[in-house]
Amino acid sequence: MIYLTRRATFSASHFYWNDSWTAEKNEHVFGRCSNRNGHGHNYTLEVTVAGEPDPVTGFVVDLKWLKDVMERKVLAAYDHRHLNLEVPEFAATKMIPTTENIAISAWKRLEPVVASAGGAQLSRVRVYETPEIFAEYRGGL
Amino acid sequence: MNASAGKTYFGRRYALSASHRLHTDALSDEENRAAFGKCNNPHGHGHNYVLEVLAGGAVNPETGMVIDMVALDAVVRTKVIERFDRRNLNLDPYFKNRVPTTENLTKAVFAMLDGSISPAELAQVRVEETENNFFEYSGD
Q1: Among A18, B39, B62, B68, fewest CB within 10 Å belongs to which?
Q2: Fold (topology level) of A2-137
């Protein structure tokens, strides 16, 4: 099994807030991230697919295809957007756009496309919020 | 609120500067030089290590988080950073009978943090010795 990773970047804004809590509790738990005016990050999205190299092309997947899938499924929705207000999975459910939840959501956006293409499987999605902070999701157990 | 069944991992990187000398009393001076090369220099040398801690668990539906980053920082700082940063690794009790290679440092850090980052579990420790080499340990 070979693991192939492609990286892309996107910039977005967010804030952390749980509507069922008081303002004081939100500020206590989330600190500066609870500022309702939001703040932003340059995120890095790392998508890893796993499979065997094709005997003809030597590719696990065509990297240009993977780039296109990442752009269509994730960057088109997240890049230069306010995650809480404009991205459906967060806006509709008030799910907090933590790095953890962004990694899970990106996985859900990518996994059906990779699976239906045949060949490789989605192995892991890693989202860096800063160079020092990242979250990773490897699908359901 | 999100309630995903799968495990999610939260990672955090920390900087750590320390010195070490790769040397074992089990070998002669000549054998040490052959095994460890310039890392056997009697006066030691140092690195800017990067420590990467990967915490795995369920995403808390109330906070959207696997672990409170501030709490994780406090554990890593008190258990690892304060112990090793700006120190000579060879003088730490853990390395009394172990060569302070980055392999052994990685295992030491794993042992120090394992079981201490509730509600998450320690999934992996990675230590980068330089930009071009790193070591990972997952406890198995």
Answers
A1: B62
A2: Tetrahydropterin Synthase; Chain A (3.30.479)
Domain boundaries, chain B: 8-137
Contact between chains at B6 and A140 (C-beta distance less than 8 A) = yes
The two three-digit tokens of residue A55, written as one number:
């005997």
Q: Between these two residues, B43 and A124, which has the higher pLDDT value? A: A124
Domain boundaries, chain A: 2-137
CATH of B8-137, one of 3.30.479.10, 3.60.21.10, 3.90.550.60, 3.40.50.720: 3.30.479.10
> For A21-52, how does the pLDDT look when each residue is reduced to its tens digit (9 = 90+)?
999 999 999 999 999 999 999 999 999 999 99
**What sign for the dihedral angle of Cα A24, A28, A32, A34?**
negative
Q: Which of the residues of A are catalytic? A: 33, 80, 129
Q: A84, A100, A124, A127: which to substitute to probe chain B, counting the most B Cβ within 10 Å?
A: A100
Q: What is d(CA A108, CA A125) in angstroms, rounded to the nearest whole number? A: 10
Global pTM value? 0.82
Looking at CA atoms only, how far is residue B77 from chain A in angstroms? 15
Is A20 at the interface with chain B, CB within 8 A? yes
pLDDT at B140 over 90: no
Nearest CB to A138 within list B1, B7, B65: B7
